[in-house]
Specification:
Keywords: Signal. The protein is α+β, with helices and mostly antiparallel strands. Helices cover 32% and strands 28% of the residues. The chain has six helices and eight strands. Strands 1-3-2-8-5-7-6-4 form an eight-stranded antiparallel β-barrel. A hairpin with a 3-residue loop joins strand 2 and strand 3. Helix 1 runs antiparallel to helix 3, helix 2 crosses helix 3 and helix 4 packs antiparallel against helix 6. The longest helix has 18 residues.
């Protein structure tokens, strides 16, 4: 968590890692891999930090997601790479003094590893006919599907994902999703499919209904996609408004 407020090294060649024609919005992700025995302390500390931010009002918004395997993901919009060099927490840290240090000492007790990386949201590949948004009221449950691929299949998997969207559009599917692409700091190349629901039951019901909507055509389209996937991972979790933060206007 401590590296959330540190700057990343800016390298001009970073842009080579991103397909700019599909990368409309970038996000910096800070991931804490919390130990099962320390979840209670971590939750308490995360809420303390959020409360401190509400008091001191740093200009650094984020939304938080937690996964079933105890990853805590802090998702911050990234306007450009230059903003990575800004320390927006410097005034808050000075004002808090020892309280700041104590918060991060507690955070550090809760995990053995954490990381930072960048992903990009592709509006062109996403399917949300009513408008793309990360947060939908009353739908904080998430299914995340990671589609890993090797460099040789980069173009093929992109075309296959386009084919999936065309199928959803042609069938007027009511199952919406967002597509993110891996960027700087990700050890592997992947596309991330994010699907929102009310809860686990709602997710299952939507999934079954979508199969019926797409019909038999789905088998060929998804089969074509999966032939270019080197590794597949499904993770469930939820968005956490209680430990997310949005600054007040100055």
């Amino acid at each position: 968590m401590k590296t959330l407020i540190k700057s990343l090294v800016i390298i001009s060649a970073l842009c080579l890692f991103i397909n700019m024609s599909y990368a409309q919005k970038m996000y910096q992700i800070h991931q804490d891999n919390v130990k099962p025995s320390m979840v209670s302390l971590y939750e308490k500390t995360a809420k303390e930090f959020t409360e401190a931010c509400n008091k001191h009002n740093p200009q650094a918004p984020w939304i938080t997601a937690t996964t079933g395997n105890m990853r805590y993901l802090y998702i911050s919009p990234l306007e450009n790479f230059a903003t990575l060099d800004e320390n927006v927490f410097s005034d808050m840290r000075k004002a808090m003094g020892d309280s700041w240090s104590n918060i991060f000492k507690n955070f550090n007790k809760c995990y053995d590893s954490h990381s930072d990386y960048i992903i990009t949201l592709s509006e062109k590949l996403s399917y949300m006919p009513e408008g793309i948004t990360q947060m939908q009221e009353g739908q904080n449950y998430r299914n995340w599907y990671y589609l890993y691929y090797t460099p040789e299949n980069g173009e093929n998997i992109l075309e296959a994902i386009k084919g999936v969207k065309e199928l959803f559009k042609s069938k007027a599917s009511k199952s919406y999703y967002r597509i993110y692409r891996s960027g700087f700091g990700c050890p592997e190349s992947f596309y991330l499919v994010a699907v929102s629901s009310k809860d686990e039951l709602d997710s299952a019901i939507k999934g079954k209904a979508n199969q019926e909507t797409l019909g038999e055509d789905r088998k060929a389209v998804f089969g074509n996609l999966m032939q270019y996937v080197s590794r597949f991972e499904e993770i469930t979790g939820e968005m956490r408004p209680d430990i997310s933060y949005s600054p007040k206007s100055n």
